[in-house]
Amino acid sequence: MPAQTSRMLFGHPRAALQVGIPRGIDEFCERTQEWLGSATEILFGRTVLGAYAPFIAPESLEPLIRYVRGSPWQRDSPSAGLPIRRFGHAPILRACPACVAEQTDRMQNSTWLRIHQLPGVYLCPFHGRPLLSVRNAVQRQAMREWRLPHHLNAQDWNGTAPIESAVDELRRLSAWSMELAIDQPASLRYFDPNRVAQLCRDRLGVARPVARRRTDWRPIAVAFIDRFGTLATVPGLEFIASAERADGGFIGRSLGSGIDLRYPERLFALLCFAFGAPKDFIDSYA
Ligand SMILES: [Zn+2]
After folding, report:
1. Is residue 180 part of a domain?
2. Is 99 domain-assigned?
3. Residues 4-51 pLDDT 10s
4. Which domain holds residue 246?
5. DSSP 273
6. Measured between alpha carbons, how far is 268 from 174 in angstroms, rounded to an integer?
7. How confident is the model at residue 82 (pLDDT cuts 50, 70, 90)?
8. What's this model's pTM, rounded to 2 decimal places?
């Protein structure tokens, strides 16, 4: 049944069962007669692309958009740019229990809301409650069988709800994704990774690493862990604990050899630490 529906919508049995950004958007628009919007409206307004786009150079974004609009049957990848499969880790499906209850009450159904799937969003923007994430094995099955949030049982979700003191930091982290994401290509702002790293180093008062000389990231990493350490138990944010390593983990890498834009959540954690609020960062970048 899911394969059949996917075939009807995308002309491909699995295209619709993607978390993130499905391929075959042009075919989908043709089959739905753009009832849900044009290809770019769908890509930026209904997939997570808008949250990644500000970190992809415009000359790479264009081939990427062509790639996801093209047929899922074609095995080609864009000659330039970032192939979709290289987008960070596999996204984890998330949902807010209060949203699911409201949707189920209203329409006897529920959906995976896009805003809950944006990288870095771990708190429901409508209810302020921590989102629940789906267990890995269940997610694979949920996609194959097209299961919706209200179809899942209590044991299908990851149980670790963040402790109360972490909720404020989760809220700040969530704000980054929602503030920086764009909903149409016309509003694209591109943040160059080298410049972002330099701004972070300036803010945190560290010098640019000199070749062959070891930078001591410890003082920064300790301050970071002090503030964000409790978030490392949240599924999807495990990378936070890496800052405790002698080389400063993801902080040492981001500020040293460079920011890896495939992982916006790491970038948001770093920006949140260095700047506090998205507006501070945007003003500094301008
Ligand atoms: Zn909610």
Report:
1. no
2. yes
3. 888 888 888 888 777 778 888 999 999 999 999 999 999 999 888 898
4. 185-285
5. H
6. 9
7. very low
8. 0.88
Helix (H, G, I), strand (E, B) or coil at 123: strand
171 domain-assigned: no
pLDDT confidence tier of residue 81, bands split at 50, 70 and 90: very low
Q: How far is the CA of 216 from the centre of ligand 1 (A)?
A: 41
CA of 86: how far to CAs of 32, 33, 161, 255, 262, in Å?
29, 30, 29, 21, 7
- Rounded Cα distance between 28 and 37, Å, is 10
Average pLDDT over the chain reads: 86
How many whole angstroms from 257 Cα to the centroid of ligand 1?
Answer: 38
Q: Compute the distance from residue 152 Cα to the ligand 1 centre, in Å.
A: 16
Please name the residues in contact with 1: beta carbons below 8 A apart, sequence gap of 6 or more.
146
CA of 122 to the centre of ligand 1 (A): 11
CA of residue 97 to ligand 1 center, whole Å: 7
Higher pLDDT, 90 or 60: 60
Name the more confident of 82 and 275.
Answer: 275
Position 80 scores a pLDDT of: 42
Q: How far is the CA of 68 from the centre of ligand 1 (A)?
A: 29
In the reported structure, the alpha carbon of residue 129 is separated from the centroid of ligand 1 by a whole-number distance in angstroms of 7
Query: How many domains in the chain?
Result: 3
* Same-domain check for residues 119 and 155: yes
CA–centroid distance, 166 to ligand 1, in Å, is 18
**How far is the C-alpha of 183 from the C-alpha of 26, rounded, in Å?**
18
DSSP 96: -
Q: Which comes out higher in pLDDT, residue 108 or 215?
A: 108
Find the 132 Cα to ligand 1 centroid distance in Å. 10
261 and 200 in one domain?
Answer: yes
Phi-psi bin for 52: left (phi > 0), alpha (psi -120 to 50), beta? alpha
Residues 150 and 210 in one domain: no
- Domain assignment present for residue 257? The answer is yes
